[in-house]
Design goal:
With 264 residues, the chain is an alpha+beta fold. Helix content is 23%, strand content 34%.
């Protein structure tokens, strides 16, 4: 089931993305897993410093687990290998949910994403270091539908309605370069972005939007989430559901107020 799993390590916080990916694969994938799958069952964040443990510095490392059932086959680890360095685990904890719980929470017309690591998208061989709302939604839809139980997967009509209704209302931040190898850097967006829905969005679209926003904390946003990029925290604003809220309206003749089965 979706989970945020944390391990506390005696390690330096400076771990390159390829080592984060390698360590997570050992914990989250068994021998029969498709190691080149386009959509993987985990996402990770960067290491974050924590108070000293036993006189030594330590870090917390967060893994987002996306599979509908169980926990990663290697959880909890006793050691974690980042490249050539083996780090002892001195503690672990976690927070679990279910796809049903994520789907059944309150609807929202507005969510705020705050990055815990830089995010970017890969488009036609070029990187886009911006919180582009349609790309955010499409990426979350792909990960949700890859792992959620069939009855909770988002159908084509609901997905199209959400993509057609979401927009970027506000953003505050900057670009940040992350070293990914000798002479190589990845540029990503770091900061805060507020996504909103058009006033014409149906109740069903608001429900799907909120479910995916909650899911984003587990799945991450953008490209290379398995290597530490795109980790976010999410704030939902239920007040934005009010019909009295003044929001832009899509007045194109072909616009659909949209929603799939169950739209109200």
């Amino acid at each position: 089931m979706p989970a945020l799993l944390r391990v506390q390590l005696r390690a330096s916080a400076a771990v390159p993305p390829r080592h984060l990916l390698g360590a997570a694969a050992v914990i989250c994938e068994d021998e029969d897993a498709d190691h080149h799958a386009a959509v993987k069952s985990f996402a990770v964040g960067p290491l974050a410093s924590s108070p000293a443990v036993g006189g030594d510095g330590s870090c917390w490392w967060t893994i987002g687990w996306l599979a509908a059932a169980g926990v990663p086959p290697g959880w909890p680890p006793t050691t974690v290998r980042f490249g050539p360095k083996v780090c002892p685990v001195v503690g672990f904890d976690g927070r679990v949910s279910t796809y049903a719980e994520l789907a059944a929470g309150p609807p929202a017309r507005r969510v705020r994403l705050t990055t815990a690591s830089p995010l970017f998208f890969s488009r036609n061989g070029r990187d886009l270091p911006l919180p582009e709302p349609v790309l955010i939604v499409r990426g979350l839809l792909a990960r949700w539908n890859a792992f959620a139980p069939e009855v909770l997967r988002v159908g084509d009509e609901d997905a199209a309605a959400l993509v057609g209704a979401v927009f970027l209302d506000e953003m505050t931040g900057t670009t940040r370069r992350t070293d990914i190898g000798p002479g190589l850097r990845q540029v990503g967006f770091e900061g805060r972005a507020e996504l909103r829905l058009l006033r014409t969005a149906s109740a069903q679209t608001c429900q799907v939007f909120a479910a995916l926003a909650r899911f984003a904390e587990f799945a991450g946003v953008g490209a290379q989430t398995t290597a530490g990029f795109g980790r976010v925290t999410v704030d939902l604003d239920p007040r934005a559901v009010s019909a009295e809220q003044t929001l832009p309206v899509d007045r194109r003749p072909t616009a659909r107020a949209g929603g799939g089965p169950g739209a109200g």
